[in-house]
Amino acid sequence: MDAVYLAVALFLLLTLVAGLWRVLRGPTAADRMLAAQLFGTTAVACVLLLAQLYQRPSLRDVALVFALLAAVAAVAFVRRAWREKS
Amino acid sequence: MSFTDILTVLLLLAGASFFLAGTVGLLRFPDVYTRLHALTKADNLGLGLMLAGLALQAESWTVVARLLLIWVLILLASSSVAHLVVRTAQQKGIRPWKR
Amino acid sequence: METLTLLSWAFDVTLGLTLMWLAWRALASEDLFKGIVLFIAFGLLMALAWVRLDAPDIALAEAAIGAGLTGALLLGALAKLEAGAESRSRRSEILPRPADKTKVFSGLLVFLLLALVVMLVYAIVKLPPLASGLSAQVAENITASGVSNPVTATLLNFRAYDTLLEMAVLLLAVLGIRSLAVVQEPRGREPGAVLDMLSHLLVPLLILVSGYLLWVGSYAAGGAFQAGAVLAATGVLLLLTGWLPGAWFVGWPLRFLLIFGLAVFVAVTLVLQLFGASFLEFPPSLAGSLILLIEVAAALSIGVTLTALFLGGRPQPEPPSSGRAEKRNTSGTQPS
């Protein structure tokens, strides 16, 4: 079972790395921010898989904090930092 | 492997496939509106299926409750952010893609 | 077992390489916004790296600060930069910096950096060859510390000056920012029903989780800094929705909250010194309650301080004069 958790976590990490291409490419700021939003969800899934793998309950708190703050950066983006050059 | 383990593996794989689909959509879709459509599937179903798989392995009900809370929080965040981003994108005049 | 080691190896290598690449791209990117998004991704992966290194306390801090708060902070700073740049270029006030001054400055910077490198290399060379770490000593003395989480025991008892000085640094940072900058809140946009609902649901939960992290810090991952960071995220969210007017960040209540943590910390040590303890030494019978008291005060102060940092300066006290009014139109929000 442990190998399954780690393999799925590795797979998620690889999808995150692939998604970085969208951050580099853009073209709009919204595309980049949405990619970051997806990364947040991916990281939550990864942390929870690792929590199960290591049998460490306190890692679930890390995922909880991720989930709670998932919206803060994006809200700051929408409310303050949005600009479009195109 | 017990029956629960097999079920967990299946759920994890199903969740992972939604993450893959979300990433492919993020990379391949033509504009911000369609990409958003791909992303929310990964957030909602991908994470949901994964957490369902992990919940089967949980040692107590409090762990299940915590996983559920995390999933609901991510749903809340991702759907609100999706709405906010798209509304602002429309206001800023980003045109939806047309073939 | 074999596949497990192979998989962890692959995971670690991917994580490490991606982290280094992200750090490089975040710093080298010409587009500042792209750099910020890469930095947010860096924060997420850094937290994962701490999870892999079996350091849940730091992972928690990184999750709250690196992934959540710093992103918002940098995006706010970017909005201010751009507003400033626009109003400057409109009034054509960009003054070219004298070239010789820049040269002297960068020469000095290079010199200081080289000195730092020499010092660091010296420190590494002088390290004892086989440092076993201090975890055995911490484990031996954990009962005297008043808490059972070794990280909290270290940060608030054995090396309490760590936390004390960290809070002093935060206080100095916010003092510097507030003396240098005056900010005007971007106004005129309603948050809208969705953001309203999101904040309605999130704010109570954020405060609850902040308290939970503070409490749980005595026996598991958590503590004042993590709790303060989550509290600060609450403040940032409230500032962004406009429920908490930036204009409230003035006067005695604010000053009190800013210094509260540091003041309680110093007061506790001074009172204990009157009774014969040495500097930052807590008697084992009281240590648990004292640490909790200090942590509650510290978390409050850290939360308010980080929120004030996000605000980015003193709020404008009176209605803007004609010179400022022009600036307001460019302050990041769009009149729609």
In short:
By secondary structure, chain A is mainly alpha-helical. Chain A has 4 helices and no strands. Chain B is mostly helical and 99 residues long.
If you had to describe this structure to a student in words, what would you say it looks like?
The complex is a heterotrimer of chains A (86), B (99) and C (336). Chain A has helices at 2-25, 29-54, 58-68, 72-81. Chain A is mostly helical and 86 residues long. Chain A has one domain (2-81). The termini of chain A are far apart. The model of chain A has no long low-confidence stretch (mean pLDDT 86). Chain B has 99 residues and is mainly α. Chain B has one domain. In chain B, helix 1 (3-28) packs antiparallel against helix 2 (32-56) and helix 2 packs antiparallel against helix 3 (61-91). Chain C is mainly α. Chain C folds into two domains: 1-93; 150-336, no CATH class. In chain C, 76% of the residues lie in helices and 1% in strands. Chain C is built from twelve helices and two strands, in the order αααααααβααααβα. Chain C has a two-stranded parallel sheet. The chains are: A mainly alpha (86), B mainly alpha (99), C mainly alpha (336). Chains in contact: A-B, A-C, B-C.
Largest interface: A-C, 49 and 64 residues
Oligomeric composition of the shown chains: heterotrimer
Number of domains of chain B: 1
- Shape of chain C, please? globular
Sequence of secondary-structure elements of chain B: HHH
What is the percentage of strand-forming residues of chain B? under 5%
Number of strands of chain B: 0
Give structural attributes.
heterotrimer; A: 86 residues; B: 99 residues; mainly alpha; 3 helices; elongated
Layout of helices and strands:
The complex is a heterotrimer of chains A (86), B (99) and C (336).
Chain A: H1 2-25, H2 29-54, H3 58-68, H4 72-81
Helix pairs in contact in A: 1-2, 2-3
Chain B: H1 3-28, H2 32-56, H3 61-91
Helix pairs in contact in B: 1-2, 2-3
Chain C: H1 2-28, H2 32-52, H3 56-90, H4 99-126, H5 135-145, H6 150-158, H7 160-180, E1 182-183, H8 192-216, H9 224-241, H10 251-274, H11 284-311, E2 314-315, H12 322-328
Helix pairs in contact in C: 1-2, 2-3, 3-9, 5-6, 6-7, 7-10, 7-11, 8-9, 9-11, 10-11
